[in-house]
Write a structure and sequence with these properties.
Elements (H helix, E strand, L loop, with lengths): L13 H21 L11 E2 L10 E5 L5 E3 L2 E3 L1 H10 L7 E6 L5 H13 L4 E4 L2 E2 L5
Parallel strand pairs: 1-7, 2-5, 5-6
Antiparallel strand pairs: 2-3, 3-4
Helix pairs in contact: 2-3
């Protein structure tokens, strides 16, 4: 009469482990997207030929008054040159310059000159990609 015997309750642990791993991966992915990238919000210029660059080692923001900001700290071109020189091999340093729409070309050139003085040759300009020229 095995039919009337009570079965011992059993907890299956394998599905629970699968769920825990899924939750772990889910929370890691969400946490990575919550970490903001360094920089400042700016109204970038638009370009129909903009292309994606590799992530920069240093993002330099230039506002419409010509002020240079790196990781939330205002700098002069001389300070920027000193910082870039302290980063090590200039051939491996990638700098992206993000200027406002109204930033003068001369302000951008000051930043580029500071980068060149430090020996940095990989300099990119940030822009939003648009499907047509404005």
């Amino acid at each position: 009469m095995k039919y009337f015997e009570t079965k011992k309750a059993r907890i299956e642990i394998i599905p629970m482990i699968d769920i825990m791993f899924f939750l772990l991966v889910f929370f890691i992915m969400i946490t990575l997207h919550m970490i903001p990238s360094t920089g400042m919000a700016s109204k970038l210029s638009k370009s129909s030929t903009a292309s994606a660059l590799e992530p920069p080692k240093l993002l330099v923001n230039v506002d419409d008054e010509g002020d240079i900001t790196v990781e939330g700290k205002k700098m002069t071109p001389a300070d920027l040159t000193a910082r870039l020189k302290s980063m090590g091999d200039p051939d491996k340093v990638v700098v992206t310059i993000a200027g406002e729409k109204t930033t003068s070309l001369q302000s951008m050139m000051h930043v580029m000159d500071a980068c060149r003085e430090a020996g940095v040759s990989q300099i990119g300009l940030a822009a939003h990609r648009v499907e047509g020229a404005e």
